[in-house]
Amino acid sequence: MALIEVVFILVGVCCVFFCGRRLARVLMVLFPKFWYPLPENFFTSMGKWAVITGGSEGIGRAYAQQLAGHGLNVVLISRSRGKLETAAQDIELTTGRKVTVISADFTKDDIYTSIEESISSLDVAILVNNVGILPSQIPCKLLETTNLEEKILQVINCNLKSMAKMCRLILPGMVERGRGIILNVSSGMAIVPFPLYTLYGATKVFIERFAQCLQAEYKSKGILVQTVSPFGVSTSMMGYQKEDLMTFSAEAFVKSSLTYLKAGDHSYGSVRHTILGSFFQNIPTWVLRHEAFHQSFKEFVKKRVGA
Predict the structure, then answer these.
(1) pTM of the prediction?
(2) Which of 67, 123, 259, 272 is the most buried (most CB within 10 A)?
(3) Smallest Cα–Cα separation from 254: which of 237, 240, 273, 278?
(4) What is the pLDDT of residue 179?
(5) Local structure of 157: helix, strand or coil
(6) 105: CATH
(7) For residue 11, is it within any domain?
(8) Up-side HSE of residue 82: CA atoms within 13 Å toward CB?
(9) In angstroms, how far is CA 37 from the centroid of its own chain?
């Protein structure tokens, strides 16, 4: 056989392999329940409790509702006791599960001793690190952020320190029992450098790298660690933007995201957000860095949140 024929055969085989692999990935995203089935008792087999930060509303509360529906008792941790108690009553009424609340401001430093005392004896099945804040609801350049010095500390404490500290509190028990799930809520803004969300986006990149390394370290101990990176979800932090093709309600997003729980150490949580993530990854970086894009994007967000 001539050398040129061998080369063409090898190229053809590589093309078929590449296309087949891409097709398989597409099918996995489209049909997660087939590719990543979760047994009915999956969550309760991991333990008895779900601990959720930022659990009084939005995505955190939606996770609490879903996990309670799967048979877990829930610990909600957030700043507003009034919202926590309202959420707890609703979840207990609709699911019949026990809900405990802990009032804690994650922008502060001195909260973790009391949290540890409250949860140290619990058989925690899943930790959802959801709490997070934006330095500014309307995107802006770093130096345009109001009270920048204060916001830097608050964002680092709330978005970064909370995740690392909660893992430090709960992971040892999971390792000892040889089971458990840690779910970290990141953002689609961590996928590419996203000007005007400089501080926020950087914290979300940290979350993703931290989770990937944690999974590599503790997978052999029976621990599942995953980062979920949503784009548009209608929550108070995002100004309750109107739901549309790419903007989910918190409840719809969380229900979708849990079907991808065994899809690896990173997930966008839905088919539509996966498509959006691929789109952003293929945008030339000069577009995102251009001043005209910054202004257009700022105006777009203002309209979406009604500012």
Answers:
(1) 0.88
(2) 67
(3) 273
(4) 97
(5) helix
(6) 3.40.50.720
(7) no
(8) 0
(9) 20
Q: Is the CB of residue 23 less than 8 Å from the CB of residue 102?
A: no
User: What is the rounded CA–CA span in Å between residue 274 and residue 187?
Assistant: 12
Higher pLDDT pick, 74 / 307: 74
pLDDT of 300 over the 90 cut: no
pLDDT of residue 149: 95
How many Cα atoms within 13 Å fall on the side-chain side of residue 59? 31
User: How does residue 302 score in pLDDT terms, banded at 50, 70 and 90?
Assistant: confident
Within 10 A of 234 (CB to CB), how many other CB atoms are there?
Answer: 20
Query: Which residue range is the domain that position 272 belongs to?
Result: 39-305
CA distances from 230 to 126, 137, 183, 188 (A): 19, 17, 13, 5
| Sequence-distant (≥ 6) Cβ neighbours of residue 289 within 8 angstroms | 193, 195
Q: Is residue 93 part of a domain?
A: yes
Q: Which residue's structure tokens are 């777009």? A: 300
CB 224 within 8 A of CB 182: yes
Q: Which two tokens stand for residue 41?
A: 């008792």
Average model confidence (pLDDT) across the chain: 88
Tell me which amino acid residue 293 is: F
